[in-house]
Amino acid sequence: MSKVIGHSLLTDFDSSLFRAGKHFRIYRKLGSHLLEVEGQQGAHFGVWAPNARNVSVIGSFNGWNPAAHPLAPRWDGSGIWEGFIPGVKKGDLYKYHLISGEGRRLEKTDPYGLFFEIPPNTATVVWDLEYQWQDENWLKRRRETAGLEQPFSVYEVHLGSWMKKAGGFQTLSYRELAEKLPAYVREMGFTHVEFLPVMEHPYFPSWGYQITGYYGPSSRFGTPQDYMHLVDALHDAGVGVILDWVPSHFPNDAHGLADFDGTHLYDHADPRKGFHPDWKSAIFNYDRHEVRSFLISNALFWLDVYHTDGLRVDAVASMLYLDYSRDEGQWLPNRYGGKENLEAIDFLKEFNETVYSEYPDTMTIAEESTAWPGVSKPTFDGGLGFGQKWMMGWMHDTLKYFLNDPLYRRHNHHTITFSLVYAFSEHFMLPLSHDEVVHGKGPLIDRMPGDAWQRFANLRLLFGYMWLHPGSKLLFMGGEFGQTTEWSIEKGIQWQLLDNPAHQGVQKWVQTLNRFYTSTPALYRKQFSPEGFEWIDHSDYLNSVLVFLRKGTENDPPLLVALNFTPVVRKDYKIGVPATGPWKEILNSDSAAYGGSGEFVNGTVKAVKGEQHNRPYHLSLTLPPLAAIVFTAAPAAQKATVKRKAGATTNTSEESAKAPAGKKKPADKSGGAK
Length: 674
Hints:
Elements (H helix, E strand, L loop, with lengths): L1 E3 L7 H9 L10 E7 L2 E9 L5 E6 L12 E2 L6 E7 L6 E7 L5 E4 L15 E2 L10 H9 L8 E5 L6 E2 L4 E2 L2 H15 L3 E4 L3 E2 L12 E5 L6 H13 L3 E6 L25 H4 E2 L4 E2 L6 H16 L5 E4 L2 H5 L21 H17 L4 E4 L21 E3 L1 H12 L9 H5 L1 H4 L5 E5 L19 H17 L3 E5 L24 H19 L1 H4 L8 E5 L7 E6 L8 E6 L5 E8 L3 E8 L15 E9 L2 E9 L3 E7 L1 H9 L31
Parallel strand pairs: 1-2, 10-13, 10-23, 13-16, 16-19, 19-20, 20-21, 21-22, 22-23
Antiparallel strand pairs: 2-3, 3-6, 4-7, 5-6, 7-8, 7-9, 11-12, 14-15, 17-18, 24-25, 25-26, 26-31, 27-30, 28-29, 28-31, 29-30
Helix pairs in contact: 3-4, 6-8, 12-13
């Protein structure tokens, strides 16, 4: 418990920064804070409600009486009401009681509340954030390895449905998750987890994307300290934590931010700017300074207090465009007559600049589904400043391609190669997220054609293609072992499937891919650069085969990747290589260990003289059915391979199927911001 002189936590400087939209730690001053004032223990309360006629604190300590503890408005016109209430203690419940300008009585939870009652109850809980962290070594390592030239393999998790107990009817607590989740993620080889929003939300089936308590982890699973313990346990296991963060919209629940002081305080009054038609929710007013302070402070809060390693920003496209999901006449143009949301763009840039200035060893990631240029480009170079961007086009094209019966894939070959046209225009993360296994889409394995054997082979091939394609990776829980039903937050994921050898094989394959990716510099050091990728042949549509090289630095052994998208075994398949010498097969998704046939193993193959794919030597390989195989070269072949000009391609008509290299960005550990 802190001590304070006088009755205000806020200084004049705090107030002026907040009003200017530049106070990025305002959570330290607003909300409830346990204090000792002039020898009395209690809590200081501060809330922004500039249009209220009266504000008081009601709670379990005063019988919910609006007249018992009124707050006073600050003299400076900031709209902040504050006051110290003696005798308030940790665990007490409270709300703000406001009388609007026209006399309406409102009861609101604290926008800066640290902890909340378990929904459907809506009171804020007086709490503290004291905790003894044990992750000093993790944070030190994070600082030392910061930047893009490291593996990012992300396991996306909904905490309430990852694993169930009591016959599948109850969710695990944060502390129960801490006993199981870190060990599993580490064993599977993922580098990070990404949690669907952990912030408090009233409606469980919203998955956390309709937030009312931006500063509190959901009480459904335990206390703030219990959640800290989960993060600590993940860090101890060597696993980073990325949080979904939702600054794009908020729900209209009566106890939340909407209509907070009787006005559109946090959002726009005009529904053409302030109402989201997709989610039936309110849109933040990014031009309001105090709202910017609220949001950017919130981003830093999760990095400051909960040691978060990254923030994935939800629905960025809906923020960038004023006409997003709107018909003509349903939106207002910007001051230049365009559809770009200039205030949201400025906000996103400032968010990224602030995060990377304060925490250059973290990562910001945009879920952005359009062709907006420079999402992961530094702000000083005209970009939005994110570290990475979800590669939504890759996801859509890849799943569309795999839906095809292999007999017809030759007619859709461009679909599976197109992602490499633009693969290096952003720092892309390849996502197979929760959005792909809900709303009637079914599980991933249901997109795979053929009999049971072919469906599992296709799924292994999909994952092989994903992990060997340039870019970082994200996979939603259950996908790693071939979940057979659509994701349900009530039922959780189907752990019982792991009694089946076919599902065990998929799980072991994903584990192998993760370990291979994280231990192979050729897959991650240049994963966002055209220097790390080279087509050998992308034109063999008749056989539905792709062949390419993945490369790191000159000292990193290159990899030769061959993908056969049909169930036909391709024997004596010739692949051009730049030098003679042996190439050794080191990965094969058709191995019996993963549920494959196990019948088509190449072992070590020597390159022989004879031009193929514009290269002087070639290998003669057997390509297993519906499989990904990977080879590494002996030292002599390695040397010749890395000397070949980065980005060299074949002499096919798709010569242009290379991502434009673009202007080289300055090296900086912050990813994309600054």
